[in-house]
Write a structure and sequence with these properties.
This protein has 14 helices and 13 strands. The protein is of the alpha+beta class and 492 residues long. A hairpin with a 6-residue loop joins strand 11 and strand 12. Bound molecules: protoporphyrin IX containing FE (HEM).
C-alpha cells in the first residue's frame, strides 16, 4: 500500500517552472549548452538572470527561461569544494563516466565517443533553456540573452527543438501523456480526490521529494540533498537545514537528465512494413499494429492494455490503465517501450502482491520534459503518411529526452539499466526496449535484440531488431531553486 501523501507546501516562488510544467504552449524552444569563460562576469550574468526566470508559481507569459548547471559549472562558479561534494555521486561523476556507461548500457553505438556533446573532456558548464510562443519571439529573446552573457559565457552547442503536430514524436506516436503528479500541487483536484480515496494506483500523486529536493519522498524520508557550511553563505540566501548547523543548497532544486537521441524513422517503418507483411492484408494497417506492439500505445496514444485490437483516438489521453489483467502481455507486450519504462502494477515483484508492486514502481517515476528536434517526415504526423514516406531521405531528427528527478540513480538510472536495457526484464530472455535500448551484439550474454509478442496459440518473436535510435549527447544537470541560484551567483 502506498504511504499517504506527505503534506508539505511546495515553495512555488523558489522553484523553477519546468518542475510543474513543460511549457507546451511555448512551442519554440532552444537549449544552449554553455561554457563559462569568465567566472566573475558569469556570476554577474546569473545575478541578472535570477529575476527573469519563470517560476513554478508563474503562468508562462509568452517566454520562459530556465537554467541548470553541471558539477563542473558549479565548481567554476566557485561553489566551495565541501558543498560540491555533498551533491549526488552520479551528478558529480557525470553521465559520461566509464563505469556508468556500462551500467546505463551506453555502448554498442551509444558510447560517448560518438556523441555530439557532453563528452567528459568538454567544458560543459551551464544549460540555458529558452522557451517562447513563436519562433520570432524566441529569436528576439535569444538575441537579447546572447548580448547579456557575451564575454561571460560561450555557446558550446545549441539544440533547437521542434513541436510536432498532435504532440507526437518522430515515429508518429503521441508523446507526453503519462506523467507523475506531485501530491501538493494536484493538477486537477477532483481527480486527485478520487485517486487518494482508492490509494492503490501508481498514478496516486507522489510526495514532492521524489522530484524536488528538500521535501519528503515516497519513503517518507528526505532525498539526499546538497548542503553548504553556514559561513559559505555570507549573503544568507540559503535556508537552514532543520536541526543541523548547515544550509540547504538543494532545497527547491532538482536534477535534470538530458539525453539527445536521434530517430531513424525510415528504419523504424521499413522494419514494421517488412515484419508485418502478409499477402492480401492492408500493409499500412499491419505496420501500425506492429508499431503499437513495440510502443505499447497506438499512434493516437490509446493504450494497448485497454484497446488491444485497434486504435481508439478517443482513448488517446488514457493513462488510468494497469497491466493486472494482462500478465503474459497478450494485449500489451511485456517488453513494449511504455511497459518497460513504467510497469505500473505488474512486474517481477507481482508474487509479492499488487500493492508491493505499485509501491516499488512508484519509486522509479520521472517527470518527462522532452522535446523533439529536426524536421518531421510529414508535417501532419499521420502514421499512414509517414508509412508512405518511409523511403524518404533520412534527416537529422530525434528527441531531446529530458527528465527531472530527485534521485538520478534511483529514478532515471534504475529505469534505464533494469527496465529499458535489460535482456531479462520481466522474465524475458533476449529482449531489450524495442525503441531505445542499445542492442548487444549476437552471442553477448546480455543480447537484447529481440521483441516478444505474446499471442494465442503461439507467441511471435521478432529477432535482430535494428537500432531505431542512437544516443548522441547528454549530461546530468542541477536545476537550482532561486535561493540556491542567488547563492551560486553570489548575489550580495
Ligand atoms: C527517441 C527516444 C524515445 C521515444 C521515441 C519515446 C517514445 C515514447 C512514447 C511514444 C511514449 C508514450 C507516450 C506517453 O505515455 O507519454 C513514451 C512514454 C514513456 N517513455 Fe519514452 N521515448 C523515448 C525515450 C525515452 C527514454 C530515454 C526514457 C527513459 C529512460 C523514456 C521513458 C518513458 C517513460 C517513463 C514513459 C511513460 C510510460 C508510462 O508511464 O506508461 N523514454 N515514450
Amino acid at each position: 500500500m502506498a504511504p499517504p501523501p506527505v503534506s508539505e507546501t511546495l515553495e512555488l516562488h523558489d522553484i523553477q517552472g519546468l518542475v510543474l510544467r513543460g511549457y507546451g504552449t511555448l512551442r519554440a524552444a532552444q537549449f544552449l549548452v554553455l561554457e563559462i569563460v569568465d567566472d566573475e562576469l558569469a556570476r554577474a550574468y546569473l545575478q541578472g538572470l535570477v529575476g527573469r526566470l519563470n517560476l513554478a508559481r508563474d503562468s508562462p507569459a509568452g517566454v520562459a527561461l530556465q537554467v541548470a548547471f553541471t558539477a563542473k559549472g558549479l565548481a567554476k562558479l566557485g561553489v566551495p569544494e565541501g558543498a560540491l561534494a555533498t551533491f549526488s555521486r552520479e551528478f558529480l561523476e557525470g553521465m559520461d563516466d566509464d563505469v556508468r556507461a556500462v551500467s546505463l548500457g551506453d555502448l554498442d553505438g551509444n558510447e560517448s565517443s560518438g556523441w555530439r556533446w557532453g563528452k567528459r573532456g568538454e567544458p560543459m558548464h551551464v544549460l540555458l533553456m529558452v522557451y517562447a510562443e513563436t519562433q520570432p519571439i524566441l529569436d528576439r529573446e535569444l538575441a537579447a540573452e546572447r548580448a547579456r552573457f557575451a564575454g561571460a559565457l560561450a555557446v558550446l552547442h545549441e539544440r533547437t527543438t521542434t513541436t510536432l503536430a498532435g504532440n507526437k514524436e518522430h515515429f508518429g506516436w503521441r508523446d507526453g501523456i503519462s506523467m507523475p503528479t506531485i501530491a501538493d500541487v494536484p493538477k486537477d483536484p477532483s481527480r486527485t480526490k478520487e485517486k487518494t480515496e482508492k490509494k492503490e494506483s501508481w498514478t496516486d500523486p507522489l510526495p514532492a521529494g521524489e522530484f524536488v529536493l528538500g521535501y519528503k519522498n515516497d519513503y517518507q524520508a528526505f532525498t539526499e540533498c546538497p548542503t553548504a557550511e553556514l559561513h559559505d553563505d555570507p549573503g544568507d540566501h540559503l535556508p537552514r537545514v532543520p536541526g543541523e548547523p548547515r544550509k540547504s543548497l538543494g532545497k527547491n532544486g532538482t536534477y535534470l537528465v538530458f539525453r539527445e537521441m536521434t530517430q531513424d524513422v525510415s528504419a523504424f517503418w521499413s522494419y514494421l512494413a517488412k515484419e508485418s507483411r502478409e499477402p492480401g492484408a492492408d500493409a499500412c494497417a499491419r505496420a501500425i499494429a506492429l508499431g503499437a506492439k513495440l510502443v505499447g500505445r497506438w499512434p493516437s496514444g490509446a493504450p494497448l492494455a485497454t484497446s488491444p485490437e485497434r486504435d481508439r483516438p478517443e482513448q488517446g489521453g488514457d493513462n488510468e490503465f494497469l497491466y493486472t489483467h494482462d500478465t503474459v502481455g497478450l494485449a500489451c507486450p511485456r517488453g513494449a517501450h511504455i511497459r518497460r519504462a513504467n510497469p505500473r502494477d505488474v512486474h517481477a515483484l507481482e508474487d509479492r502482491g499488487h500493492s508491493a508492486s505499485i509501491a516499488m514502481v512508484r519509486k522509479h517515476q520521472m517527470i518527462r520534459r522532452g522535446r523533439a528536434f529536426g524536421p518531421p517526415v510529414v508535417a501532419t504526423m499521420e502514421p499512414e503518411k509517414i508509412f508512405a514516406a518511409r523511403d524518404a531521405p533520412r534527416a537529422d531528427r530525434g528527441l531531446h529526452f529530458i527528465c527531472l528527478v530527485g534521485d538520478i540513480s534511483r529514478q532515471f538510472e534504475f529505469v534505464q539499466r533494469n527496465w529499458i536495457q535489460s535482456a531479462n526484464f520481466d522474465s524475458l530472455y533476449k529482449d531489450g526496449d524495442p525503441l531505445i535500448a542499445a542492442r548487444r551484439p549476437e552471442g553477448h550474454r546480455n543480447q537484447n535484440d529481440e521483441h516478444t509478442v505474446a499471442a494465442e496459440p503461439l507467441r511471435r518473436k521478432y529477432k535482430r531488431l535494428p537500432r531505431f535510435t542512437q544516443l548522441v549527447g547528454g549530461g546530468y544537470f542541477f536545476l537550482p531553486g532561486i535561493a540556491a541560484l542567488k547563492f551560486i551567483a553570489r548575489l550580495p
